[in-house]
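Friendly challenge for the regulars: who can give me the structure tokens for this chain first? No prize, just bragging rights.
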Amino acid sequence: MKRKKAFKLWTVNVLSFVLFILLSVTGLLNWLVLPRGYEARGSVLVSVRHFLIIIHEWTALIFLITIAIHIILHWTYIRSNLKKYSIMK
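First reply, four minutes later:
Bragging rights claimed.
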């Protein structure tokens, strides 16, 4: 039983790391590399920019869901620490 939970936690951690890296790369490419506005008019880079924006938005949504699952899987640990410091009774 404990090995199943450990495997789930490991999977969620690896998935969240991969999604975070993907978010970082797509965000930095859109922000620093690809041209915006009139600079990119008539270029193939406009399509690349829009594609990366879509990838970035969907990755962000999946990342938020993964973080919610991460918190749910760690809820007993979180709750015990909150009780220890008497924030939650």
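The chain has a mean pLDDT of 89. The radius of gyration is 19 Å. Your move, everyone else.
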